[in-house]
Amino acid sequence: MRKYFIIIFILALLIFPASAKAQSPITFESMDVSIWPEYDTSTALVIYKIALDPGVNLPTDVILRLPASVKELSAVAVGDAFDRVSDAGVIKTFTTSTDYSRINLTATGRFLQIEYYDPNLLKTGNQREFTYQWLGDYAVKNFSFEFRQPLQSTNVSVVPPLTNSTVDTDGFQLSSMTRTNLAPGQELSFVIKYQRETDSPSTAFLKVQPSAPLDQNLPGQSGWNSWLSDLTANAPWLLVGFGVICLLVAGYIYWTSKKGPERAGSSRKRHSVRALEVEEVGSSEVHCSQCGKLAKPGDRFCRTCGARIREI
Q: What is the pTM of this model?
């Protein structure tokens, strides 16, 4: 009996967490939707940034419906913060149908980012119209909608109207609005209209800004203007140094030219003395009158034949 009780207790422990997990509803702590029409293509780029409620058990599956016109996803990433999301190892499936396209994403972290291009950007001459619809797949505590106005566009209107408006560093006009406590199944729709005379994407009109002013040097870089200014500032010292070098060179040339004749005269004098010494030595030599052998200075008799040396 005790064995059966232990088995039932273990099964209850295994089943209870799974049941609790299955019964936990998925709620979005926040959801930011950004619409970028004609940014780098002729379609509209849609960006989702979703933060799951801290009470959601992980991992969990998040299923979102997208427009049927969307045939592929541009990016899907998961992480423990928005600035640390990654697409590495993300488990997802994407299916299409005549009604909706669907993404089934296994969320291993609380923060999700999903991007796709929606071709449902209507163009009639210079008129543009795009409609975004949130289908209310989940409850959302804080919903934010942002429209990034394309460059070279005018006469913009959004329904419902967007209240907040700013300009980013690239020159894009940003308009947004927020809603709170959206219930599951509560839909939102936004209709965007504007005029644009060109079909080129906004990226074609972006100005590449230098990382530093053109007259400012980057670390480790020496610019022409800096070199020229340094040269001008140090010109007096450079002239003094050049003058000293010229004087040293001139002095060396003068010294070498003056010492040349003296060295030649001294050399000739030494050669004359040497020749005179040789001549004197040669004139003082005495030979034996009998055998002709050379006698040494001071000899009175020949060391070879014994004959008397005659002094000259």
A: 0.62
Buried b (16+ CB within 10 A) or exposed e, 119-150: eebeeeeeebebbbebeebbbbeebbbbbbbb
Cβ proximity of 143 and 180 under 8 Å: yes
Check if the beta carbon of residue 162 is closer than 8 Å to that of residue 177. yes
Angle in degrees, CA 158, 160, 165, rounded to 5: 60
Contact in structure between 62 and 113 (CB atoms under 8 Å): no
Q: Are 194 and 159 in contact (CB under 8 A)?
A: no
- Which residue from 72, 64, 140 is spatially nearest to 107, judged by alpha carbons? 64
Neighbouring-strand partners of residue 181: none
* Integer CA distances (angstroms), 6 to 18, 19, 115, in order: 19, 20, 50
Q: Which residues pair with 65 in a beta bridge?
A: 102
Residue 139: the pLDDT is 98
Phi/psi of residue 77, nearest 5 degrees: -140, 150
pLDDT of residue 227: 57
Residue 310's contacts (CB-CB under 8 Å, 6 or more residues apart) are 286, 289
Q: Which of 84, 91, 94 is nearest to 61 (CA)?
A: 91
What's the pLDDT at 290? 74
